[in-house]
Amino acid sequence: MKLPIIAYGDPVLKKVCTPIEQTYPDLKQLISNMFETMYNAHGVGLAAPQVGLPIRLFIVDTGADEGDKNKFKKVFINAEILEETGEPWAFNEGCLSIPDIREDVMRKPNIRIKYYDEHWELHEEEVSGMPARVIQHEYDHIEGKLFTDTLSLLRKTMLKSKLDAISKGNVKADYKMRFPKQSKKR
Description:
alpha+beta, Peptide Deformylase, 5-stranded antiparallel beta sheet, Peptide deformylase, peptide deformylase activity, hydrolase
């Protein structure tokens, strides 16, 4: 089932997420729904807060964009980035919760991460290149951070009207979105 993607401005996107247990209700179905939602939106990663759940879960599938040898598809539960190394490099990132905005974001090319997979097997591994970048982006989501938080004050100011429009639902996306409830003026 395709889930609505939570739009910029919703408080769930700014929450530090809580770990989950193996008994989390309907976890297998949630993971399946998240992959379906991500593929429908043409994304390469999706975090639980982006579907309204403040839990430490995200998925990544870099697809075959870089060729089959670089295909990287994984589920990350209760992930913890242990180390980030290398010379930071810029890449133009976007986010399904922030449609139509892309900005250069600096990230280190190598990470060491510990996480549980969908079978609750514990992994600790090193990841490099584009998969590492996607993991860092999704990991930021479960830490309550968005890629726009990394931008300079000037750049944020320049994007303010676009970001405000997204939070008010004034954006077109080719996938279902849920927008923050607007407070009623009295």
